[in-house]
Design the sequence.
């Protein structure tokens, strides 16, 4: 049996395959080698009976995760997984590699992540190459849920949002300055917290203000993370993540105005990754 995991900052999706039989998806919290200990990762996986019941039956585990771009961070996640899946060979790779495998389907192209965070790479059909580094949520993540969420709450506090968004955020989340400050000015989960409000924004994705708001952020992403690649205008540009998925209509306008062609846009790469490793 093989197990595949795709972890962003918000959640981690898991699916396993036994020959032609593929399990249903199960989700845990997302794991980050920057913030989470081995003990927490082990605890959260074992809480899921669906995973715990088959843990010792796994022969291979393929994990793609946010923050897993260096050897030491990969090893931190790998050590935790090895203690749960004791009979498996565990391979840990960057979520960007997972995005490339899931969207490019073995063909050359540009693969982008637009979810809680953002990133991009060129995929030659086998390996990935980054033209610019991911700077994380404090310095980068242009066009991501974090990027938009930060601006959204700032405009909310300054009372500069359209009335329908002011009402939506007030009614759905009971937001006020103290509640926002309590969640933003603490360590650990601020990127996930800020990105969480984009689901409410997507309810109004055909409103003029929302489309202009999203267009500006996605244009910034295109400048920093797509147009830096040679021949970006000749390659399919593929996307994974909730921002790309829910605001695809705005992404199409950005692509047209910046001279690139959109390839695949998928919300979650887990199904494609399972198929890839199963075969």
Sequence:
């Amino acid at each position: 049996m093989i197990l595949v995991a795709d972890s962003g900052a918000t959640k981690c999706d898991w699916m396993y395959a036994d020959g032609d039989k593929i399990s249903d998806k199960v989700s845990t919290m997302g794991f980050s080698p920057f913030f989470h200990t081995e003990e927490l990762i082990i605890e959260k996986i074992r809480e899921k009976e669906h995973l715990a019941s088959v843990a010792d039956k796994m022969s291979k585990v393929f994990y793609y995760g946010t923050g897993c771009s260096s050897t030491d961070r990969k090893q931190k996640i790998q050590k935790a997984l090895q203690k749960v899946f004791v009979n498996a060979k565990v391979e840990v790779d960057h979520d960007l590699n997972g995005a490339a495998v899931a969207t490019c389907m073995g063909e050359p192209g540009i693969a982008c992540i637009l979810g809680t965070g953002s990133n991009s790479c060129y995929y030659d059909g086998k390996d990935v190459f980054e033209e610019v580094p991911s700077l994380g949520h404090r310095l980068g993540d242009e066009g991501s849920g974090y990027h938009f969420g930060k601006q959204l709450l700032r405009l909310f506090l300054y009372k500069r949002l359209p009335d329908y968004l002011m009402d939506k955020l007030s009614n759905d989340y009971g937001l006020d300055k103290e509640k926002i400050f309590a969640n933003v000015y603490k360590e650990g989960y601020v990127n996930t917290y800020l990105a969480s409000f984009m689901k409410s924004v997507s309810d109004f994705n055909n409103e003029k203000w929302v489309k202009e708001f999203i267009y500006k952020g996605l244009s910034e992403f295109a400048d920093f993370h797509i147009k830096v690649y040679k021949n970006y205008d000749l390659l399919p540009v593929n996307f994974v993540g909730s921002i790309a998925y829910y605001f695809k209509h705005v992404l199409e306008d950005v692509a047209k105005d910046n001279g690139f062609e959109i390839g695949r846009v998928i919300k979650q790469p887990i199904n494609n990754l399972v198929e890839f490793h199963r075969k």
Observations:
- The chain has a mean pLDDT of 90.
- The first helix runs from residue 38 to 46.
